[in-house]
Specification:
This protein starts with a strand and ends with a strand. About 0% of the residues have low confidence. The protein folds into two domains: about 270 residues, 4-Layer Sandwich (Metallo-beta-lactamase, Chain A), CATH 3.60.15; about 180 residues, Rossmann fold (3-Layer(aba) Sandwich), CATH 3.40.50. It is of the alpha/beta class. A hairpin with a 7-residue loop joins strand 8 and strand 9. The protein is globular and about 70 Å long. The longest helix is centred in the N-terminal third of the chain and has 27 residues. It is built from 13 helices and 22 strands. The structure holds zinc ion (ZN). The site of zinc ion has 6 residues, from loops.
C-alpha cells in the first residue's frame, strides 16, 4: 500500500492523507479545511483535491474539528459517493460544525459581494452538508469493523474532543497483514470532561500529529483554580468583565463545566456567565447526551447534580437579537463566545466593546495562529483593528493553557514511543516545522528511530 500526504504536511490545518492499497482501493483519512494556505480556498473547485473525489472508496474521519472534517462537503459535491466512517458523537458534532462552516462561507461571500470585493464562491452549501451527513456511517469505539475485504478498522480513544478517535487499520495484502495507526489529534491526560487517551497499539506505520511537539504545558495545572483566579481578580476585585474567546466545540464545554463545578462548590463569585454562541449551545447538548464517552469524574458529577453544564447564573444567548441584553448589561460578568482565535464570530463584538476598558480582561484560552486577532493580542499590541476600526488596547490581555486539548511534547513522546517497534515508521504531520523538528529530536532520544516529516504530496510505500 501507499500513503500520500495530501494535507497538514509541515503545517497544522487541512488534515488529509490518502491510502491506496495494492488492489487500488482508496481510503481517505480525514478531509479538513486548510486555514494556513488560504489560497487553496480560492482555487476553482475542481482543483481543490490532488485526486479525483469520485475515485475515493471510503473516508475515515478522526474527529469533528473543521481542520479535519471541513472539506468533506466539497468532496461530496465533487463526486464522492462512499461512506464516511466516524464515531457516533463525531457524526453529530460534525453536522453542526459543517452547517456552521457553510453559513460562514455564504455570509462572507455575500458581504464581499456587497462591498464589490471579488471573491470565490463558497466551497459548499447547507444542501451539500446534508448530503454529506447522509453518507456518515457510525462505528463505536473499540468495535472492529470490516470496511472492505481484508481491511479492518478499529477506533480507539484519543481524548482531545468528544468522539475523537485514533484510527487503527489492519490490512491484509497478499496474505500478509500490515497495520497503520493514525492519531488524529491527541489529547492530554486529566483534561476536563474527556477520557484520557488510550495507549497506541503496535503498528507498521504511525501517522502522528505534532501540534505542540516543541512545547510543554505547565505541570499540574488546576483548571478550577486558574479560572477562579481570573473571575475573582476581574469581576470582584476590578468590578470588570472577563471575556473568554473560546472554540464553540470542546473548549466552551470545558470552561462552562469548570465554572459549574466552582458554582456547585460555592466558590464561584455571584456574577452572571453568558455563553454567546448558538453552535456552542448545540454542542453542549451533544456533550450532555454522550455521558458514556466522558470520563469517570464527569460521570460522578452528573450522577450527583444531574446536569454537567447548568448553574443558576448561567445565561445562554442563542438568538443574535438577544445580544442587546448583553450590550446593555453593565455589571461585572463572564462572557464566553466564539471564535477562539478571535477571528470572526460574535466574540469580535465583545472585544470591540471592551478592549479599551481598563477593568476588562481578555483571557485567551487556546492556540492562536499567526495573523489572527488573538495572536495580535497575545503579542502585546497597543492598538488593534476590530471590525475595520483601530482601537487602543487598555484591557488586560491574559492567556491560559489550562484548557488546551492537545498533548504537549512529553505527552506526544510518551504516546509515540510507548509501543514503538524497531521496524515501525513514524510520520509526523499536523504541526509547524519547528514543532515537528523538536519532537523528532525528543523521539530519537527516546528510541524512535525511523521518523519521516513529509512535504505535501510525498508518498510512503509500506
Ligand atoms: Zn482537533
Amino acid at each position: 500500500m501507499q500513503i500520500t500526504f495530501c494535507g497538514a504536511a509541515r503545517q497544522v490545518t487541512g488534515s488529509m492523507h490518502l491510502l491506496t492499497l495494492d488492489n487500488g482501493y482508496k481510503i481517505l483519512l480525514d478531509c479538513g479545511l486548510d486555514y494556513e494556505q488560504k489560497k487553496n480556498f480560492h482555487y476553482s473547485p475542481p482543483n481543490s483535491f490532488p485526486f479525483d473525489p469520485a475515485s475515493i472508496d471510503v473516508v475515515i474521519l478522526s474527529h469533528a474539528h473543521i481542520d479535519h472534517s471541513g472539506n468533506l462537503p466539497n468532496l461530496v459535491r465533487q463526486g464522492f459517493g462512499g461512506r464516511i466512517i466516524c464515531t457516533p458523537a463525531t457524526s453529530e458534532l460534525s453536522y453542526h460544525l459543517l452547517l456552521d462552516s457553510a453559513r460562514i462561507q455564504d455570509h462572507d461571500y455575500r458581504k464581499n459581494r456587497r462591498k464589490k470585493i471579488q471573491t470565490p464562491k463558497p466551497l459548499y452549501t447547507e444542501k451539500n452538508v446534508k448530503q454529506t451527513v447522509a453518507q456518515f456511517k457510525t462505528v463505536p469505539f473499540h468495535k472492529p469493523y470490516a470496511i472492505a475485504p481484508g481491511v479492518t478498522l478499529t477506533f480507539g480513544i484519543a481524548g482531545h474532543l468528544l468522539g475523537a478517535a485514533f484510527v487503527q487499520l489492519k490490512i491484509n495484502e497478499g496474505g500478509k497483514e500490515k497495520s497503520l495507526v493514525f492519531t488524529g489529534d491527541w489529547g492530554r491526560a486529566n483534561a476536563p470532561l474527556l477520557k484520557d487517551p488510550e495507549s497506541l497499539p503496535e503498528c507498521d506505520v504511525l501517522i502522528s500529529e505534532s501540534t505542540y511537539g516543541g512545547r510543554l504545558h505547565r505541570p499540574n495545572i488546576d483548571p478550577e483554580a486558574e479560572l477562579l483566579e481570573f473571575v475573582t481578580s476581574t469581576c470582584v476585585t476590578q468590578r470588570g468583565k472577563l471575556i473568554i474567546p473560546a472554540f464553540s466545540v470542546g473548549r466552551t464545554q470545558s470552561i462552562v463545566y469548570t465554572l459549574n463545578k466552582l458554582a456547585r462548590k460555592g466558590l464561584l463569585p455571584d456574577v452572571k456567565v453568558f455563553v454567546d454562541s448558538p453552535l456552542a449551545i448545540k454542542s453542549t447538548n451533544i456533550y450532555s447526551s454522550y455521558r458514556n464517552d466522558l470520563n469517570a469524574e464527569t460521570a460522578e458529577f452528573a450522577h450527583s447534580f444531574n446536569d454537567l453544564f447548568n448553574f443558576p447564573n448561567l445565561q445562554l444567548i442563542e438568538d443574535q437579537s438577544d445580544n442587546f441584553l448583553l450590550d446593555n448589561y453593565f455589571e461585572p460578568c463572564v462572557i464566553v463566545s466564539a471564535a477562539g482565535m478571535v477571528e470572526g464570530g460574535r466574540i469580535q463584538t465583545h472585544i470591540a466593546n471592551h478592549i479599551s476598558n481598563n477593568y476588562a480582561t481578555i483571557l485567551i484560552a487556546g492556540f492562536c495562529s499567526p495573523g489572527t486577532l488573538g495572536h495580535d493580542l497575545l503579542q502585546g499590541r497597543q492598538t488593534i483593528t476590530v471590525k475595520g476600526r483601530p482601537m487602543a488596547v487598555y484591557a488586560r490581555i491574559a492567556s491560559t493553557d489550562a484548557f488546551s486539548s492537545h498533548a504537549d511534547a512529553n505527552g506526544l513522546c510518551f504516546a509515540i514511543s510507548e509501543n514503538n517497534t524497531k521496524t515501525r515508521k513514524t510520520c509526523l504531520v499536523h504541526g509547524d516545522e519547528g514543532n515537528m523538528n523538536e519532537l523528532s529530536v525528543l523521539l530519537k532520544k527516546n528510541g524512535v528511530s525511523d521518523i519521516f516529516i513529509p512535504n505535501r504530496g510525498d508518498c510512503v510505500n509500506i
